[in-house]
Model the fold of this input.
Amino acid sequence: MTRLIRLYPPGFREAYGDEVAAVYHEVIAGAGRVGRGREALGLVAHALRLRAGLGPGRPAGRLCGVAGPLVLAASAAYAGLELSDLAAYATAVRAEGRPPAFFAGDTARAAAAAALVVSAVMALVGRWAAGRLWAAAAQALCGVLVLTLDGATPDAIVTGGAGLLAAALLAACPPEVFPARRARILAGAAGAAVWLPLTALALDRLPVSTDYAVWPFLVLGWAGGLVAREYGGGVRLAVATGVSAAVPFAADTWLAWRSPVAPLAALLLLAVVASLASAVGRGGIPVSAGRV
Done:
């Protein structure tokens, strides 16, 4: 146990080390090997999060705590768009009188995307702890499948890397923080607002040919500003929240335009929109442990 306590930052260890050790021994008293192992892993994870500055009182931890719901909703929207593309393909092929052909890799990626969507919904409606972790795992699997199935091509590295980065952002959310209900509602609404029009576009249900990849950045920028405002955050937090959620869409923009200028311009647009949204009044929900 002494070795595990040493994983904590020195300041935290000196202030709370004895208390953490006492609680740990109390929890594992009479527990079996599996229970002791689970508690030890939880202790190690907590220590490493504090080492990485991901505690709820640190800037990185605060950002993850605030941005987590929107990152989750945006990741689910992106996964939902992949499912929409498969549905659009199947619809078009069937209209030609041919059966759609799905390979094992397509099926695996669709299953991972569906698991991500289901986990995100579960987290946003109230089962945050379990849903977020399952969503992070599904998002990581999506990224790994892209890198594995598509090979080490530049496109796969950009897309798969963006997926893994989104998974890391979800995993880094402080588990002590349960997002406010209004923040979860805003995030869920933003995810739906991204997914629905683009799905209608993919299924040829809108009278336009393309959205030029702008729509997700407008929605996520505005949502980032509103979510940050709910927690009393300013422009910086609003922009960081929106940018964190837009990671997969920024990768898509690079792939579509084949130029770093396009995603940078899109993120700049997002920053402007997030700044405007955060300036429309001020909220006051503190980021705190437990349910709010």
